[in-house]
């Protein structure tokens, strides 16, 4: 599956031209309208590896198709190529904003179009294969860990190895996230109303905050320098990938820890002012566990040596967070961090003293 080109164009001659371009390499299905294409995708999207899409059609334009296509959740699954005779920059910009991979000008040059589409299809196929392998391996790792009847420190060590292995980290980062999360829940007002069992569940869930990085390509995850805008967009996907991975594993989904782990994985990069990701939540729309993990993850990243940076002094890191260099956090949460910062640093970073 995932090997069929779906041509969408209301002009029969254009469809024949595009069929001829692709038929030597792929099975081709062609339809004369956007609604027909959407109906095929609703029934079964799995065969389709690329969609050459005409921009001007009578019943529904290509851009309108893209909006519905995205709402159906296909944007990251099937690459779309807008085919147009127009030289309208605004149309092209809008199309790229809606997620098209490329804009192809008419009249098409067969071998050029075929190669451009094939390059993207190959990348998507490789990503699907890697995602499937990663998901299978992740399920095995998590399922094995969750056979342990008591969620204890052994679970932390297991997930530390699973999560941080590909990121090139030592495993100490998630151990500190666990300790910092537990500290905030037991020593500040942010744990008010939580019993000991709930505190432990949230702290254990915090170690899975970056599990989605397993689904990020090595070339981006291991990059030593600054990300490009496109690479950063891919990196941001680790939040959604992590939440989807956790939701896909029945052994986790049926456990009390799931609600916290899913929420933290998805929302630990949200920020108080709504400028975080992936959902742009603001204020108390962000759960307390996700707020805490977001802050302590940021602090630990600043004061720890990473592959791409040296560690910063404790006070410098606090000042950067205070100045909003890492995004805006709950002011009350920041007050708690500053009130307990010296104690935290002495306990978890003794080598810096």
Give the arrangement of secondary structure elements.
Elements: E1 4-8, H1 12-22, E2 28-31, H2 34-43, E3 48-54, H3 62-71, E4 80-84, H4 89-97, E5 102-105, H5 110-145, H6 153-164, H7 172-187, H8 196-206, H9 218-221, H10 229-236, H11 238-248, H12 250-253, H13 257-267, H14 288-303, H15 314-322, H16 331-348
Helix pairs in contact: 1-5, 5-6, 6-7, 7-8, 7-14, 7-16, 8-13, 11-13, 13-14, 14-15, 15-16
Question: Which structural category fits the helices and strands?
Answer: alpha/beta
Largest sheet descriptor: 5 strands, parallel
Number of domains: 2
**In sequence order, what are the helices and strands, one letter per element?**
EHEHEHEHEHHHHHHHHHHHH
Q: DSSP helix count?
A: 16
Return residue spans where pLDDT drops below 50 for at least 5 consecutive residues.
none
Question: Would you give the CATH topology of the largest domain?
Answer: Hypothetical protein af1432
CA radius of gyration is 24 Å
The strands making up the biggest β-sheet line up spatially as 2-1-3-4-5
Mean pLDDT: 87
Task: Report helical residue fraction.
Answer: 55-70%
Q: What's the CATH class label of the largest domain? A: Mainly Alpha
Strand runs, count: 5
Residue share in β-strands = 5-15%
Shape summary: elongated
- Terminal Cα separation, in Å? 58 Å
The CATH superfamily title of the largest domain: Hypothetical protein af1432
CATH architecture descriptor of the largest domain? Orthogonal Bundle
Descriptive terms for the model:
7% strand; 353 residues; five-stranded parallel beta sheet; alpha/beta; Hypothetical protein af1432; 5 strands; Rossmann fold
């Amino acid at each position: 599956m995932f090997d069929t080109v779906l041509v969408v164009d209301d002009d029969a001659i254009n469809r024949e031209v595009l069929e001829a371009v692709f038929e030597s390499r792929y099975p081709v299905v062609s339809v004369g309208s956007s609604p027909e294409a959407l109906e095929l995708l609703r029934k079964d999207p799995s065969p389709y590896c690329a969609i050459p899409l005409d921009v001007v059609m009578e019943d529904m334009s290509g851009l309108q198709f893209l909006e519905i296509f995205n709402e159906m959740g296909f944007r990251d699954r099937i690459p779309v190529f807008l085919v147009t005779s127009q030289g309208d920059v605004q149309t092209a910009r809008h199309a790229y904003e809606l997620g098209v991979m490329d804009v192809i000008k008419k009249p098409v040059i067969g071998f050029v179009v075929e190669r451009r589409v094939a390059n993207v299809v190959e990348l998507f196929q490789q990503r699907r294969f890697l995602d499937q392998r990663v998901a299978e391996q992740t399920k095995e790792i998590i399922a094995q860990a969750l056979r342990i009847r008591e969620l204890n420190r052994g679970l932390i060590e297991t997930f530390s190895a699973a999560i941080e292995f590909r990121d090139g980290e030592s495993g100490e980062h998630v151990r500190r996230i666990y300790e910092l999360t537990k500290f905030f829940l037991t020593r500040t007002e942010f744990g008010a109303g939580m019993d000991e069992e709930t505190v432990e569940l949230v702290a254990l869930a915090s170690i899975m905050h970056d599990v989605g990085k397993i689904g990020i390509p090595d070339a981006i995850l291991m990059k030593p320098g600054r990300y490009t805008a496109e690479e950063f967009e891919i990196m941001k996907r680790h939040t959604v990938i992590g939440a989807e991975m956790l939701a896909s594993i029945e052994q986790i989904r049926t456990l009390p820890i799931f609600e916290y782990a899913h929420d933290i994985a998805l929302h630990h990069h949200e920020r108080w002012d709504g400028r975080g990701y992936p959902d742009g939540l603001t204020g108390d729309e962000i759960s307390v566990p996700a707020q805490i993990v977001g802050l302590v993850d940021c602090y630990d990243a600043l004061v720890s040596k990473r592959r791409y940076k040296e560690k910063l002094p404790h006070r410098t890191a606090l000042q950067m967070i205070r100045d909003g260099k890492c995004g805006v956090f709950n002011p009350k949460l920041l007050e708690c961090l500053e009130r307990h910062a010296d104690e935290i640093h002495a306990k978890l970073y003794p080598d810096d003293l």
